[in-house]
From TrEMBL, chain B:
PANTHER family: SHORT-CHAIN DEHYDROGENASES/REDUCTASES FAMILY MEMBER (PTHR42760). It comes from Amnibacterium flavum. Belongs to the short-chain dehydrogenases/reductases (SDR) family. Keywords: Oxidoreductase. The keyword Repeat does not apply. InterPro entries: KR_dom, NAD(P)-bd_dom_sf, SDR_fam. Signal peptide: none annotated. This is Ketoreductase domain-containing protein. Residues 7-194 form the Ketoreductase domain.
Length: 254, 250
């Protein structure tokens, strides 16, 4: 975490308005990154961008719906016009909707895959187009989930989408290695965010979840952000195509 | 030995290419480093090198296959300067086809890479769990997950075992405050890798053909992984083997 990089660093973070995305944005700012804070919610994007500015880094609020593929290039172009060339990407925008595969409406399944998997795809590809156009190195982290490799009951759509994110990180890493773009995934375990409030807030569900975590506690979003910041940094210069679980030992696997 | 109150890191096999890079990186972040290796001269020279650069270091002759020696060494070091990081880096590697591998060679690999790692991990954990804090990093390999391109069946098996011990110990110790993780380097430019018999041309061809980033890894790049895993930034990472391979396994 301590390799100094003299160059300007600009990150594009989706889902920056809340939860893990917000923590990632603030940690990157504290490490010297300028951050384009992308979120579908204009108010939340602006609020996070304000915090980055208050921390002394440049920021831009980017109102962006990650499922809107044609708009990805526009959002990236806007961010670069505000902050300069992007060298870091973190795709945090995500949605978790559970239910039996036999009963989930098509619309719901498509939304989960659209946001979690395809949203990461469009964002990563838009930045890669920009970076490759001027031969610029970059690093990307796609936020997956331990559920991308370990199934839970009722999570077929979510698990399939996050498993797809893990495969996508490998595929993009191989495709873009020759142009100096590293792509990795971070797979958070149970994390103390608004998205997990439903399960962590219910004492019975909380106990059941914690019983399965070797460290017997949920992650703080800052702990996920640390892994993201490491993978984006020059210290991870030979790391590409991996998935880094930050899960308190849940998966105990590579 | 100068008095200090620095966090202390023990690195085994620290006279070697990767081991010394890790020792140096941990010294750079402010650890007092115990440079442990088989030979007195080599380990002393490496510790001297760190001290000359302004870092805090000592050396220790250590054969990780010798139970009495490991037990005594870790107890002595820890009583004097409490261990916060232990990197299990000592390892041996050689190509050897199944049909031509004498059991003595198989036993050597397992004695160092598996039994030695287990033993150092056990003693480090005994010291650290009493304080409820510490970090252990076991050097595994991409061969923990995929068979080597050359015939290295016994080596591959030993690294597979190292990876599973890492997961199991990570899980078992998760609630004690001691974190156990691993590193899986891909093909690095080290004497150990060159000792496997490939020429410079062959290594360059391997990099171009099989490693997505098109080059071998630097030991300094792998050392960064050891530094991160053993830092507070990795506080929720346990039982994981961090692959540093330029995309080889992707």
């Amino acid at each position: 975490m301590s390799v100094a990089d003299p160059g300007r660093r600009v990150a594009f973070v989706t889902g920056a308005g809340r939860g893990i995305g917000r923590s990632v944005t603030l940690l990157l700012a504290s490490h010297g990154w300028d951050v384009a804070c992308a979120d579908r919610d204009a108010g939340e994007a602006a609020a996070t961008a304000g915090l980055v500015a208050a921390a002394g880094r440049r920021s831009a609020a980017v109102i962006h719906e990650v499922t809107d593929a044609p708009e990805a290039d526009t959002a990236v172009a806007f961010a670069e016009s505000e902050l300069g060339p992007i060298t870091g990407v973190v795709t945090c925008a995500g949605v978790e909707i559970t239910g039996p595969a036999t009963e989930l409406p098509e619309r719901v399944v498509r939304t989960v895959v659209d946001v979690n998997l395809l949203g990461s795809f469009w964002t990563a590809a838009a930045v890669a187009r920009s970076a490759q156009a001027d031969d610029r190195e970059a690093a990307m982290v796609l936020v997956a989930s331990v559920n991308g490799r370990t199934a839970f009951p009722g999570q077929a759509a979510y698990t399939a989408s996050k498993g797809g994110v893990i495969a996508l990180a490998s595929a993009l890493a191989v495709d873009w290695a020759p142009s100096g773009i590293r792509v990795n995934a971070v797979a958070p375990g149970v994390t103390d965010t608004a998205m997990s409030a439903g399960s962590l807030g219910d004492p019975e569900k909380r106990a059941a979840l914690l019983a399965r975590i070797p460290m017997a506690r949920p992650a703080q979003p800052e702990e996920i952000a640390e892994a993201v910041a490491f993978l984006l940094s020059p210290a991870a210069s030979y790391i590409t195509g991996i998935t880094l679980p930050v899960d308190g030992g849940w998966s105990s696997r590579a | 030995m100068p008095e200090h109150d620095l966090p202390t890191a023990l690195v085994t096999g620290a006279a070697g290419g990767l081991g010394f890079s890790i020792a140096r990186r941990l010294a750079e972040r402010g650890d007092h480093v115990v440079v442990a290796d088989l030979g007195e001269d080599a380990s002393a020279a490496r510790a001297d090198e760190l001290r000359s650069a302004g870092f805090s270091a000592e050396h220790r002759v250590l054969d990780v296959t010798d139970e009495e020696q490991v037990v005594a060494a870790i107890a002595e070091i820890d009583s004097r300067t409490p261990l916060s990081t232990v990197v299990n880096n000592a390892g041996v590697a050689f190509s050897s086809p199944l049909l031509e591998t004498p059991m003595s060679r198989f036993d050597l690999l397992f004695s160092v890479n598996v039994r030695g790692t287990f033993l150092v991990m056990r003693e480090a954990a005994r010291a650290m769990t009493s304080r409820g804090a510490g970090s252990i990093v076991n050097i595994c390999s991409t061969s923990s997950f995929t068979a080597s391109t050359g015939p290295m069946i016994a080596y591959d098996a030993s690294k597979g075992a190292a990876a599973m011990m890492t997961r199991a110990a990570g899980r078992e110790l998760a609630r004690t405050g001691v974190r156990v993780n691993g590193l899986a380097p891909g093909t690095m430019d080290t004497p150990l890798v060159r000792g496997l018999g490939s020429s410079d041309d062959e290594l360059a061809q391997l990099a171009a053909a099989r490693i997505p980033v098109g080059r071998l890894g630097g030991t300094d790049e792998v050392a960064e992984g050891a530094a991160w895993l053993s830092s507070p930034a990795a506080s929720y990472v346990v039982g994981h083997i961090l692959v540093i391979d330029g995309g080889w396994l992707a």
